[in-house]
């Protein structure tokens, strides 16, 4: 039996063959090393993160999240719900918080879910994978499996906004969260302590609807990493990763910059430091190659 077991909500972007499937690959490798078992919620659905932009209304979004929680409660009882996607974690946790304080919303949700033979209880905590790593395992335990320290690599920890507010990671500052810096350090790399854009919003879905605004934000995030000498950026959010990586070419064309900085997930750093191959770390799924990580992974 695994040391830790959780009810796992992959989310649309992180599932296999989706835009952040390399995140899922590296999470699986990381969890195998840490003896963590993720029990996927059967028949899970989208968290509804995009519904707000499409003016789909509050109730449909909460119904979608409540359905996932109800499925988890019936299939993985007694296990905390864990998400790797910041938007999925935030949306699911928000629904749980709102339902806990509204008998009317609870009644509406169970009336609708009842037609599908489901019932929402809301008793399972909803957590981001990073909360599990820090709170359940701890930095000392995360450091123990390191066999290939990421020496000589300077990393800017980009937390983003969804993983930071309104809930965030317990004990961390909203203005200057340090957990990515701490993780970077115990993996043997050098955190860019003065990186000043770690909680700046990447623009999210504005990348589609108002790209000029989003790209102006992304430029600040990347430029700051360069200014402080970072070799790469690390993030816990699939949307942050996608926006800061995919749009570098367009930003270069618009602003005359020459950005080409890798943007990776914390789980990719950990998998390489734990001795995993570049493929096991999902590095083949990055658009901008993290060559320094690939080189470390290739060492015998």
From TrEMBL:
Name of the featured protein: Heterodisulfide reductase
Residues annotated as domain Cysteine-rich: 7-88, 157-243
UniProt entry keywords in alphabetical sequence: Oxidoreductase
Pfam families found in the cross-reference section: CCG
One term of GO molecular function: oxidoreductase activity
Keyword Oxidoreductase in record: yes
Listed InterPro entries: Cys_rich_dom, HdrB/HdrD_reductase
Keyword Chaperone: no
